[in-house]
Amino acid sequence: MSDETTEPTPPADELSAAEVSEQKAVRLSKRERLISSGREAYPVAVPVTTTIPALREKYGHLVTDDTTGDVVGIAGRMVFARNTGKLCFATLQAGDGSRVQAMVSLAEVGQESLDEWKEFTDLGDHVFVSGEVISSRRGELSVLVRQWQIASKAVLPLPNLHSDLSDESRVRSRYLDLILREQARFTVRARAKVNASLRATFAAQDYLEVETPMLQVMHGGASARPFATHSNAFDTELFLRIAPELFLKRAVVGGVDRVFEINRNFRNEGADSTHSPEFAMLEAYEAYGDYNRMADLTQQLVQNAALAVAGQLVVTWADGTEYDLGGDWDRVSMYESAAAASGLDITPDSPCDYLLAEAAKVGIEVEHPTHGKLVEELWEHFVKPNLTRPTFVMDFPVDTSPLVRDHRTIAGVVEKWDLYIRGFELATGYSELVDPVIQRERFVEQALLASQGDVEAMRLDEEFLRALEHGMPPTGGIGLGIDRLLMAITGLGIRETILFPLVK
């Protein structure tokens, strides 16, 4: 409990335009007077000697009315204030949300400095204070200020720290969300821990991290609608990549036997609670691995990331729900699980007309229907809603997986899995197709679909085929959504796990 009792400023997104304009005018006037008085409103630096988190860690043991004799210089954003006659209180907040109280007294700073504090400081300002570390009469860790300085003058008011921003305001003004909400600060730090954990897991297994082009002359590596743009320098149409797969495989051909990339992908498709047009993706490839090896690796990557964020494999989501990411995860056959759940004859040999009729009975509509698309839609209808534990769904139809090796024992099926956690697809893994002749046939089939209007179909990529023709070793590959991995660990929606999501 701090020593101040300030009534916070009303939420900025609840103020009228006139009220915001009035408050801005008042603060701009303070800025001008501050500068005219010889002080700086935006100094290039202030003489900090420690941080608020470090201060709390070192002096958190102090009890009521303790003194230390230690003088520090700290800076933070002023989020609460109470100005009285001879003693003013302010709470300074660091970027991680930790706080310390500043006490500005007549006895320590003198009348002129105290008057300037009252005149020039506002909630939202970044303020530097220097003084002795003490504990107040209410037991609040404090700095008894001897000198102070504006570090950055805020000319717009902060929202109310006790009232949540609307969901839309949180997304559009993430900087305010980070100031106000502990969950937002936790999420941005959790994401950094996840990425560090992924890289550490790969480094321990001799993987190399690379970067591949985001602007590509031909989109490929997944079935998705691309974003198109134009290069003035080359006078040609280019595409924002939908996946790094075809370039990472070129690296494997070149001898980079264990390779991964964490970077952005772009798909010109819908946005909802699990999809964003721009998203972060991990892809990795291992020479002489297969989809079983990559499933083992993916489980290790996810579990290590959960440990890095939560310290355990039973994670607690934002709504308080617990979810167990521990143990060995289930592996089920797509065809067998779909047939068992639906009671239908769903096999690799099921005719397309039969599947189309059964899909229509349950209200499933598929644009440009094929055997594989219908099987996957029926599986999603009958099986997906009932998955609770983390589950690898194994062995997909060949016609929806043009970059995947044929199953070693089951005709019409490829060695591919999708990992489902929390009801959504988190990752996918392949035994990669490395035969350039079969790959060309698959690309031709995709090109035919594209000519028939399927905007998600891949194009014939001669440069990639040329690379394969130089010999690619047997390889396993995975693709894992970073945003969705955060969703699985935190229980948040995708717009919460992306720091600055795309909004209209």
Index terms:
BirA Bifunctional Protein, domain 2, NA-bd_OB_tRNA, 16 helices, magnesium, OB fold (Dihydrolipoamide Acetyltransferase, E2P), 2 domains, 18 strands, single chain, 504 residues, disordered N terminus, 5-stranded mixed beta barrel, 35% helix, alpha+beta, nucleotide-binding
Walk me through the structure.
35% of the residues lie in helices and 25% in strands. With 504 residues, the chain is of the alpha+beta class. It has 2 domains: 17-152, Nucleic acid-binding proteins (OB fold (Dihydrolipoamide Acetyltransferase, E2P)), CATH 2.40.50; 180-329 and 389-497, 2-Layer Sandwich (BirA Bifunctional Protein, domain 2). The strands form 4 sheets. An 8-stranded mixed sheet has the order 6-10-11-18-17-16-15-14, with helices on both faces. A 5-stranded mixed barrel has the order 1-2-3-5-4. Strands 7-9-8 form a 3-stranded antiparallel sheet, with no helix packed on it. A hairpin with a 2-residue loop joins β16 and β17 (424-431). It is elongated. It starts with 16 loop residues before the first helix and ends in a 7-residue tail after the last helix. Mean pLDDT is 92; it is low at 1-11. It is found in: Cytoplasm. Its main location: cytoplasm.
| Overall pLDDT level | 92
Structural Rg: 29 Å
Q: Which of globular, elongated, flat, extended, rod-shaped describes the shape? A: elongated
- CATH architecture assignment of the largest domain: 2-Layer Sandwich
Poorly predicted runs: 1-11
CATH topology of the largest domain: BirA Bifunctional Protein, domain 2
Give the helix/strand class. alpha+beta
Overall strand count: 18
CATH H level of the largest domain: which superfamily? Bira Bifunctional Protein, Domain 2
Main sheet strand line-up: 6-10-11-18-17-16-15-14
N- and C-termini, Cα separation = 40 Å
Largest sheet geometry: 8 strands, mixed
Strand content: 25-35%
Helix content: 25-40%
What's the number of domains? Answer: 2
CATH class of the largest domain: Alpha Beta
With helices defined by DSSP (H or I, 4 residues minimum), what is the helix count?
Answer: 16
